[in-house]
UniProtKB/TrEMBL annotation, chain A:
Cellular component GO terms held in the UniProt record: nucleus
Pfam families: MAGE (PF01454)
Chain spans, region Disordered: 1-62
Originating species: Daldinia eschscholtzii
GO biological process: DNA repair
Limits of the MAGE domain: 64-216
Source organism, top-level taxon: Eukaryota
InterPro entries to which the protein is assigned, alphabetical: MAGE (IPR037445), MAGE_WH1 (IPR041898), MAGE_WH2 (IPR041899), MHD_dom (IPR002190)
Protein name: MAGE domain-containing protein
Biased composition range(s): Acidic residues: 35-54
Taxonomic lineage from the root: Eukaryota, Fungi, Dikarya, Ascomycota, Pezizomycotina
UniProtKB/TrEMBL annotation, chain B:
EC number of the protein: 2.3.2.27
Gene3D superfamilies per UniProt: 3.90.1150.220, Winged helix-like DNA-binding domain superfamily/Winged helix DNA-binding domain, Zinc/RING finger domain, C3HC4 (zinc finger)
Family, as annotated: Belongs to the NSE1 family.
Function: Acts in a DNA repair pathway for removal of UV-induced DNA damage that is distinct from classical nucleotide excision repair and in repair of ionizing radiation damage. Functions in homologous recombination repair of DNA double strand breaks and in recovery of stalled replication forks.
Subunit structure: Component of the Smc5-Smc6 complex.
The entry's keywords: DNA damage, DNA recombination, DNA repair, Metal-binding, Nucleus, Transferase, Ubl conjugation pathway, Zinc, Zinc-finger
InterPro entries: Nse1, Nse1_RING_C4HC3-type, WH-like_DNA-bd_sf, Znf_RING/FYVE/PHD
GO molecular function: ubiquitin protein ligase activity; zinc ion binding
Recorded GO CC terms: nucleus; Smc5-Smc6 complex
Main location as per UniProt: nucleus
Cited CDD domains: RING-CH-C4HC3_NSE1
Organism listed in the record: Daldinia eschscholtzii
Protein's recorded name: Non-structural maintenance of chromosomes element 1 homolog
Length: 309, 338
């Protein structure tokens, strides 16, 4: 690499930072409320400074650039392994003793991700409380404190317009191999679609019946079906809810996980169904949109979903 | 943010190209052409829809994507990601002579990146394989710099005596250090799987004769790391080093030719040879003036061109004992040396 490109790049970083500065000021007002809880928490792990102003000056320019860069790299690394980007992880691995600058570093990284990579961090929805026990626990907690309105976890998604998302451009990742990745994406998209079409949850027996019909009851191209199911649960595409009941067998229900909700939106599901259906009946799209609740942004859990039985 | 000193604009088409690159890890010009054609088509459609463009766009054909287009996208993207310690670097494939562009990390945590999806045991195994390529099977006598499946299989577990006393351990590898002692190693079937995975991901290449070597991508990404790990920093000029560079192009040589003089360090890629000799009056080593035979090899031919390998191959037919054959030749040669 010729040396002059190096200096050019450095300059570019500087400029971006100026732009970020302006953006930051614009956004700071809006984000103020949500950040209150943040600040009080950070005070507790106190880095001894006491005074906020001093801290701000110390983490100016140079350091903050570094932190933004670290956060971008951290976000990309997490996504590489389909691990959610956790706030706590950001605090430990990126910010270290600069925990106070979370908001500014986060916004800086967000701007860089969009500008350079065409991606952004999207917060995952909070895990729904599915079983009775979980609900009770959550209620008890809610009474005690007002927090937990955010999942504190993020995933990276593309911000490019749909034209750019065609398969000839964004091919399945080569990791672990192109065909395996393609099969994996196809599998979880199918499972998520099945769950959504069944009104947001699917009993274990029913899922197994679907899998058998897909000739995926035991094995998939990459691994045993059960191992792959385990993986899509671990990566948050689906949730496996086990309700223990004394005497009887445990009731297992499959629901959409938080990553599945973000990465497999109703539009993708609609595309899968249209593709699988073949010859489309007249009112297909109307019915489809109703089933998926595409019209209303709120996911429909009401009678518009296909009834269970 | 799209202002001044970036010479070209940086827009969604660049971002899409970057994302395409990230999914693939490496690209050649020929691989990139259909991708860029699709990106240009998408770009035109996007412009048309947002009203920045009058006439309805027609799809860009593959033939319309020029080398200049590719170069300009590569350099724009590379400049944009360099503040994040990433870069697109080109290297020439040592055998096919094709330019291979790899998206790499320029900070020294390349090994960590390679590790993200692998277990500690698998990583330890990969490390043993690379050690074998650059240490065990890379001696002044025989610079094989690759390893066949059978030999790799022998590395599935750490050798009984603690092998971690080598001075190659780097700081970035330190995280696995304490666990390494407790690792049990892999099963034979897992060895195969890991090797296949490394080939699929583009870190290793497998030759027709069944040898695994580092791919252009791995050589680009690990270049500095390999030098730090395997070369002696305080070795004198002209002293034998494990990682050597081509006399012509200055890239690492893992497949190529060597000077007939065993202690001379001059190495040359097969693909650089023609241009190199054209500028010289005689085919002699530029350092020690020994006659350049072109029959002294670096890489798998150091084994496969030996008489005993050829003989053994004729005897045992195409398959079967070939792997163990390579092993016995490499080991025998090493024995000679002691």
């Amino acid at each position: 690499m010729p040396p002059q490109t190096q200096t050019q790049r450095r300059r570019r970083t500087g400029n971006n930072d100026d732009a970020n500065e302006a953006r930051r000021h614009r956004q700071s007002r809006r984000k103020n409320e949500s950040d209150d809880s943040e600040a009080s928490e950070e005070d507790q792990d106190g880095d001894g400074d006491g005074d906020g102003d001093v801290d701000m000056e110390r983490t100016g320019d140079g350091t903050e650039d570094q932190l933004v860069k670290k956060l971008v790299r951290y976000a990309l690394a997490c996504e590489y392994g389909r691990i959610p980007i956790k706030r706590d992880g950001i605090r430990d691995k990126v910010l270290g003793s600069n925990a106070r600058s979370f908001k500014r570093v986060f916004e800086g990284a967000q701007a860089q991700l969009q500008q350079v990579f065409g991606m952004e961090m999207v917060e995952l929805p909070i895990k729904e409380k599915r079983t009775l026990k979980e609900k009770q626990k959550a209620n008890a907690r809610k009474a005690a404190s007002q927090t937990s309105t955010s999942s504190r976890q993020y995933v990276l998604v593309s911000t490019l317009p749909p034209e750019y998302k065609s398969q000839s451009i964004i091919a399945p990742s080569r990791i672990p191999s192109t065909s395996e990745e393609a099969a994996y994406v196809g599998f979880y998209t199918m499972i998520v679609s099945l769950i959504v079409l069944n009104g947001g949850e699917l009993s274990d027996t029913k899922l197994r019946r679907y899998l058998t019909r897909l000739n995926a009851g035991q094995n998939l191209p990459m691994d045993k079906t059960d191992n792959v199911l385990q993986k899509i649960v671990k990566q948050g595409y689906v949730d496996k809810v086990v309700e223990r009941s004394d005497g009887d067998e445990d009731a297992v229900t499959w629901c959409i996980g938080s990553r599945g909700r973000v990465e497999v939106p109703p539009e993708s599901i609609a595309a899968v169904i249209t593709e699988v259906w073949g010859e489309l009946p007249d009112d297909f799209h109307k019915k489809l949109h109703r089933s998926l609740g595409i019209q209303e942004p709120e996911r429909a859990n009401d009678e518009s979903a296909i009834p269970e039985e | 943010m799209e202002d001044d000193d970036i010479s070209h604009p940086y827009d969604n088409s660049h971002r899409a190209f970057l994302q395409a690159f990230m999914a693939r890890g490496t690209m050649t010009f020929n691989q990139a052409r259909p991708i860029l054609a699709a990106i240009f088509t998408a770009h035109d459609q996007d412009e048309y829809r947002s009203g920045n463009r009058e006439e309805e766009p027609i799809a860009t054909r593959l033939g319309e994507v020029s080398r200049d287009d590719f170069d300009s996208y590569v350099s724009a993207v590379s400049a944009a990601i360099s503040p994040f310690d990433m870069e697109i670097r080109a290297t020439t494939h040592q055998v096919t002579k094709e330019r291979v562009y790899s998206l790499i990390n320029t900070t020294s945590d390349a090994m960590t990146q390679l590790a993200t999806l692998r277990s500690a045991e698998e990583m330890a195994f990969v490390r043993r394989v690379i050690d074998a390529m650059f240490d065990q099977y890379n001696t002044p006598r025989m610079e094989v710099l690759c390893i066949d499946g059978m030999q790799a299989n022998k590395l599935r577990a750490a050798p009984p005596r603690s092998s971690n006393n080598n001075n190659n351990e780097d700081a970035e590898n330190g995280n696995g250090e304490s666990q390494t002692q407790a690792l049990k190693g892999l099963k034979s079937s897992e060895v195969e799987q890991v090797l296949r995975g490394l080939v699929d991901e583009g870190w290793f290449e497998r030759s027709r004769a069944g040898f695994y070597s580092l791919s252009p991508r791995a050589l680009t990404e690990l270049r500095q790391w390999l030098v730090d790990a395997y070369n002696e920093g305080d070795a004198g000029e002209g002293e034998w080093q494990r990682v050597k560079f081509c006399e012509a192009c200055r890239e690492i040589v893992t497949v190529g030719q060597r000077c007939a003089e065993r202690d001379c360090c001059v190495r040359l890629h097969d693909i650089c040879e023609d241009a190199f000799w054209r500028t010289r009056r005689e085919r002699k080593c530029p350092r020690c003036s020994a006659e350049w035979t072109g029959k002294h090899y670096v890489g798998e031919r150091a084994v496969t061109e030996t008489e005993s390998y050829q003989r053994g191959r004729r005897r045992s037919g195409k398959s079967g004992g070939r792997s163990s054959l390579a092993d016995s030749i490499m080991d025998a040669e090493e024995g000679d040396e002691e």
